Amino acid sequence: MPSWQDFQPFIVTGLSVGGVYALSGVGMVVLYRATGVLFLALGAVGAMGALIAWQLINQSGVNQYLGFLACIAFSGLLTLAYGMVFGAALSRRGPLINATATLGLALILLGVMDLLWTSSGGQSRAIVLPTDNSGFMISQIQVEWTNVIALGFGLVVTIVTGAFLRFTKLGTAMRAMANDREITATLGVPVRRVEAAAWFGCGILSGIGGLLLADLVALDASTLTFLVLYALAATLVAQLRSIVVAFVAAVVVGLIEEMLTPIQSLTNYRDMTPFVIAIAALLWQNRHATVSLTREGI
User: Fold this and answer.
1) Residue extents of the structural domains in the chain
2) Hey, which CATH number is domain 10-285, 1.10.3470, 2.60.40, 1.10.1740, 2.30.300?
């Protein structure tokens, strides 16, 4: 069993990665509440935005901050475009259909990224944020400002989003649409405008998350695409309702995943973390549910 000192660096990494998972989780919950669509392409959108930023910065000589801005703008506009074209139709279909449709977008983007930025025999890629080269010490642990920003930004987005949903007209409209879309439309709420805001906001969060994860984890299309599963686990724990629960669950997922890394006997199973936590939470939440079985025709 590793010593406490062996775990300390992974606590920092786990909290920061969990903060980024929380960004995605908040975006997924808000979008689902406003449109009824579970957006599983969020990781792929952020991954492609991060690769575009890398291309602009390292191959085209674009200013670093302009490259980051291009990543966020691309992610927001692509998600908005998808939502405007397919969102209305998907919102009227079942969760299985709209989840499959967004997963299809993720696979398409993954194929495009593999074509444009091939990973077989290609050069290694990385995005290094300016905050990587500075930080501070807590006891014997080196903490970079990127780690602080990742966790802090996730917390700030959760708080601001909660206040936005509670105290603004647009946020109130989103909450009303989550309860009953048809009644909300009959009350004169501009449903399409509200949906557009939700899609665009979710895309912006995916772009920011893509940049942070490209720095904290790796700039790899497949890795970043399927990290959406960690955010999905957090949203399932929150039952696609509470952004606060989604934030806490995302941080717990990231922390446990990283804490398993120094334990050699469990390292190979760390990718199971989001599924185990989601299943355990769902079983706990439904512990008082009763199942009725009937037999007819006997």
Assistant:
1) 10-285
2) 1.10.3470
Residue 60 is which amino acid? Answer: S
Per DSSP, helices labelled H in the chain are 4-35, 42-58, 64-82, 88-91, 95-116, 145-167, 169-179, 181-186, 191-216, 221-226, 228-237, 243-259, 273-285
Read off the pTM: 0.89
Distance CA 45, CA 202 (A): 10
Rounded to the nearest 10 degrees, how much is the dihedral formed by the CA atoms of 202, 208, 211, 214? -60
- pLDDT tens-digit profile of 189-213? 777 888 899 999 999 999 999 999 9
246 within 8 A of 22, measured Cβ to Cβ: yes
Q: Which H or E run contains 143?
A: strand 141-144
Other CB atoms within 10 A of residue 107 CB? 13
User: Which comes out higher in pLDDT, residue 189 or 75?
Assistant: 75
Residue 33 has pLDDT above 80, yes or no: yes
Residue 142 and residue 133 in contact, taking contact as beta carbons nearer than 8 Å? no
**Closest C-alpha among 218, 210, 253 to residue 24:** 210
